[in-house]
Amino acid sequence: MSEEQRQWMYKNISPEKKPAQGNPLPPQIFNGDQYCGDYDSFFEAKESNTVLSFLGLKPRLTSTAEP
Which residues are registered as beta bridge partners of 28? Predict the structure, then answer.
């Protein structure tokens, strides 16, 4: 990660996820410019099967028709 990318990450993290002192450590997860959360938030989304929502993605429609 370049210094420019690191600074962008620090600037774009949600205020409630910023530590009282210092900078948050990677991985911080973004979808484009939208902050999604940190690793712990991602892990919780994985465990609760809500990763698509965590990432701000819409679920794909699956076909129920058989070939």
Answer: 38
